[in-house]
Input
Amino acid sequence: MRPRTYVIVAVVLVQLFLVSRLVAFIQLFFEHSGIAITQNEIAQAHPTGSEDRRPQLIPKIIHQVFHDWKYHNQTMPSDWDEVRQTCIDSNVGWEYRLWTEQSSRELIETHYPWFLSTYDGYKFPVQRVDAVRYFILLKYGGIYLDLDNGCLRDLTPLLYYPTWTTDGGRGALSNNILASIPNHPFWVLLTNSLIPYNYNYFFPYVTISYASGQWFETAVWQAYHKTAAGSSPENRLHRIMMDDRPGVEPWIFFTQERGGTWVNWDNYFFLWIGDHLLLLGVGLCILVAFVWWVGMRCARWRGEGSHERKGYAALARGSPRREGDDV
Output
């Protein structure tokens, strides 16, 4: 096989790999698997003033995680304390658990020691907050909320769906509000995927999102629905539609308050990309075409150089042999 052929094959294989990874990545930001359900549909399915005949699946536990990675104290900011109190007041009789840095690490160390070195080794502290919420739901089940999410009403209507996440209607799924029964196979797959996804992607936003955050959650969500467990009716997953843009169905269970505790220098750049995915797609297509062109030029250059090093130049097709030419 000629050197030029090797180069062409290598270029094609690299481009096929990059295109396949690109397609898989872009799919994270469009239509998602699972059963989409609106907040109003959930509320209407739960009878008011009478007993719900459906089996309650999710335990009445509210989980929140507070890690003060700057000062390492256990005192929560007053505005977040007020927000979490709305969930306690709206759900009388529920168990409420606030997970600190210490209790979060103890959970991993006691029940999932195989993950402890990865947990301790995360580059960004918020990745530990991301990861521990998944293990909490795997172990105990219940409803998890970020500290910047409050409650507008009783959350009981949300307990009749085995596992659900929230979908903002654009981009990746969200991991700020999650719920599940204990030991659901989705969380088994997701927690087992944390180590294989643990890469440093240079950009802080990408590393956080794709190694442990919402991009990671969305990728595993899509992968789960391709498994045998994901196609089983009793293990089906729901996406609760919670778009916060003006003019859409308002939130009826939760509120959104002050957040932004893990904002890095590149957050706004990638948020801009999220709002301009079509432009990004066109740009990436141009980039792939450019890489192909460069690869072909390099292959042609290497082929011509190979001929010259052997002491002859390639004849144009159909050129007549001159008298005295070596045979």
Observations:
- The mean pLDDT is 82.
- The chain has eleven helices and nine strands.
- The longest strand covers residues 174-180.
- Residues 277-309 form the longest helix (33 residues).
